[in-house]
Write a structure and sequence with these properties.
With 337 residues, this protein is of the alpha/beta class. It contains 13 helices and ten strands. It has helices at 33-37, 43-56, 61-72, 86-97, 102-107, 127-133, 155-168, 179-183, 187-201, 218-230, 249-266, 281-295, 312-325; strands at 8-10, 17-19, 75-78, 119-123, 141-144, 172-176, 205-209, 235-237, 271-275, 305-309.
């Protein structure tokens, strides 16, 4: 079930550790334009398939509680607001360390499980604050970079942002791609951009944000996903959370199948991050169901799947309290910051 920092995983039904190595990084491959050109997406079929996730897949009682605990361990707790402060970031880090009240974990027999968030995601200016607050926890800090959220600042400046965050200690970098490269089908430009960003990241993992809601078509989402993976992306991420359309299940389905196609052709594993607009426990479970069915159980680990959210954790904790007590509490009793 949830994974201790980077190496150990605990099953949902017992405390016995399951040895599972962290997935090796995706080295990328040369740009294959013929592969990109052959991509086709049947939008109506994708939407029908995505709709079935909410109608035929459900978990109840102790199984739902176990899945919700799993979801917590996949969370990138995020604060990316203009009014962020060091105090808010520290409170978010404290929540990442202890995301669920101890009395609830004890009542579920889960107090011994290493339940904590997968990462903290902040602006570059707060990387040092987050690192200090998370010291000794094993929880990595992710920094958004490259002119987030628009990604339209000068390219050298965007690379400089990446290097600065890595130098500060960020272990993960969430970068924004240039949407114009996708909309004009300039795949060599997109490939070169992501490749250089990957090089600037060094040992830090790179998550490429597609801003899928602004790419026009699901075919563009699929093709942009493949190009980013060819360029060496460790994760492909749905959105910045600032677009009018963010993480939707049809978009996630197309990206998951691109990841599956990439693995089948190259043997390399790439992660999926859903971010933007995921606020309820039910929505979080829908994403876990999609990932499990399309990619398999191996992807339900922090090294290959993330949920980027801030308010989602509060609803998950509410659902867990209902499981323990039979009563729903007010959302304000479970603040993240």
């Amino acid at each position: 079930m949830p994974e201790a920092p980077k190496q150990r995983i605990v099953s949902p039904s017992s405390t016995a550790p399951l040895d599972l190595p962290v997935a090796p990084r995706n080295p990328g491959k040369p740009l294959d334009l013929s592969w990109i050109e052959e991509v086709r997406v049947n939008r109506s079929a994708v939407e029908r398939r995505a709709a079935t996730l909410r109608t035929r897949r459900t978990v109840k009682k102790e199984w739902q509680a176990a899945w919700l605990l799993r979801a917590i361990t996949l969370l990138d707790l995020t604060t990316l607001s203009g009014d962020d402060t060091p105090g808010r970031v520290r409170r978010l880090c404290a929540k990442a360390r202890r995301p669920v009240r101890l009395d609830l974990l004890e009542a579920m027999g889960a107090a011994q499980l290493p339940i904590h968030a997968a990462a903290i995601c902040v602006y570059h200016i707060f990387v040092k604050v987050a690192l200090e607050a998370l010291e000794g926890s094993g929880i990595p800090v992710a920094a958004v970079s490259t002119g987030f959220p628009a990604g339209l600042s000068p390219f050298e400046q965007r690379l400089g942002e990446i290097r600065a965050s890595v130098a500060e200690g960020a272990e993960e970098i969430d970068v924004v791609i240039t949407r114009a490269h996708v909309l004009t089908e300039n795949w060599p430009a997109l490939y070169d951009e992501v490749r250089q960003m990957r090089e600037a990241c060094g040992d830090a993992h790179i998550k490429t944000i597609l801003a899928a809601g602004e790419l026009g078509t699901l075919r563009n989402v699929a093709r942009a996903s493949l190009v980013c993976m060819m360029a060496g992306a460790d994760f492909i991420k749905t959105s910045t959370g600032k677009e009018s359309v963010n993480a939707t299940l049809p978009i996630g389905l197309v990206m998951a199948r691109a990841i599956r196609d990439y693995r089948e052709r190259t043997g390399h594993l790439v992660g999926l991050k859903a971010a933007g607009g995921i606020r309820t426990a039910r929505e979080g479970l829908d994403w876990l169901a999609l990932t499990k069915e399309e990619l398999g159980d191996r992807w339900l680990r922090p090294d290959l799947f993330r949920l980027g959210a801030s308010s989602l954790l509060a609803d998950i904790e509410r659902q867990l309290e209902h499981y323990v007590t039979g009563r729903y509490s007010a959302t304000h009793r479970h603040p993240a910051t």
